[in-house]
Amino acid sequence: MAAASIAPWDGVCNHQAINSLRAMRRGDCCLFYHSGVGAASRHIVSVVEVTREWYEEEGEAASGGAMDVRAVGEFRRLVALGKMKIGDGVRTTTTALIPA
Length: 100
Description:
The protein has helices at about 15-25, 80-85; strands at about 5-10, 30-35, 45-55, 65-80, 95-100.
């Protein structure tokens, strides 16, 4: 995501994740998690700010719902899901943000 650009965060299939996104409000910041194929590609890559709260997508290509986000900063190094589950992944990495 380019700096200061706004993009939809869509394609979320996990119901627990959808409920968390629905609870987010405009101005909230959150960690943007990339869930690729296989555990090696699952990382937190950046911090984003909510610019539009959860909405249901319309039309033929609709994938359910989305919320719009703006890049705040990205991590100098990726934070693996396993590190997050241990509990120290973000604490040791949040100071390593590159502003968007």
